[in-house]
Amino acid sequence: MNTLTLRTTLEQWRILQAIVDHGGYAQAAQALHRSQSSLSYMVAKLQEQVGVEILAIEGRKARLTEKGKVLLEEAIGLLNEARQLELLAQSLGKGREPEIRLVVDMAFPTPLLLRALTRFMEAAEQTRVQLSEVVLSGADEALVKGRADIVVGTRVPTGFLGDLILDIEFVAVAAPHHPLHGLSWSLTTEDLKKHMQVVIRDSGTVSPRDDGWLGAPRRWTVTGMETSLQMVCTGLGYAWLPRHLVATELAAGHLLELPLDKGGTRRVPLYLMFGNPSDVGPAARHMANLLTEVAADFEPG
User: Fold this and answer.
1) What DSSP designation does 238 have?
2) Helix-strand-coil split of the chain, %, nearest 5
């Protein structure tokens, strides 16, 4: 492998940035607690090493040349990356994981998830989050196959432990003009089977489940709840969807609850689980606490 010997250092570029930001050598020297002569020497050496005039002196102020602007812009990116690298090293030194794999069932309210992620970023910016959104057995599969550090799923697979953090209410809905709303009696399973049902496809591949499907041959199968919601709103079918997801449409009259004789609503539990409970790092523990906290504040609407 060919290696390139670097002629300049990050410290030289940091000093150049300080001179520009503070408007001159004297001001930068005061901000950096260094002598003005040492800064002058560093910049002179830098210009010599790159073979380009970077700073031009106008009166008592130093200004960047056009070539200097281009070089400093690139250098600032390198300085920021170096700072991030040092912060990551400090984080790892404290035992924090560089990355956590988070798998969340789509039934978990997105606003809550975003709130938890925002708080996590504020406290553990150097830990990357690899987020996967799944449906039904997708959460089980991630645990069993060791592809997750934290999982929020609808059931606890054999061999794992989980804490119930949320109950999601699913409600059967259809657009106001859907034929099912034209019937004058409480709907039965047989009534529903005569019409198109919109079903969310299980994201798992090993043991996929058809939870919520009535077994009727007429169905639309989609991969996301937002797609299901839009299809139901346009009258293409009916579906059981989380109440928090359809609250706005119900309030506006764009959707109506189906008058079922039974089973019009059902509750789906969401459990928080660790992929490896015996080896949970501080970042994963913090994320789990945040998910639990935001779930406790949940109002279905």
Assistant:
1) B
2) 45, 20, 35
Rounded Cα distance, 167 and 277, in Å: 23
Beta bridge partner(s), residue 134: 105
Structure-token match 């002179």, residue found: 44
Q: What is d(CA 273, CA 49) in angstroms, rounded to the nearest whole number? A: 55
* Residue with more model confidence, 207 or 183: 183
Q: pLDDT by residue (tens digit) across 162-178? A: 999 999 999 999 999 99
Domain borders along the chain are 10-93, 97-301
Nearest to 124 by CA among 148, 149, 99: 99
Reported pTM: 0.67
> What span, in angstroms and rounded, lies between the C-alpha atoms of 64 and 72?
9
Give the integer Cα–Cα distance in Å for 87 and 165: 32
What integer is the mean pLDDT of 74-90? Answer: 69
The answer to whether residues 298 and 109 touch, using CB atoms and an 8 Å cutoff, is yes
Q: What architecture does CATH give domain 97-301?
A: 3-Layer(aba) Sandwich (3.40)
Asked: is 10-93 a CATH 1.10.10.10 domain? The reply is: yes
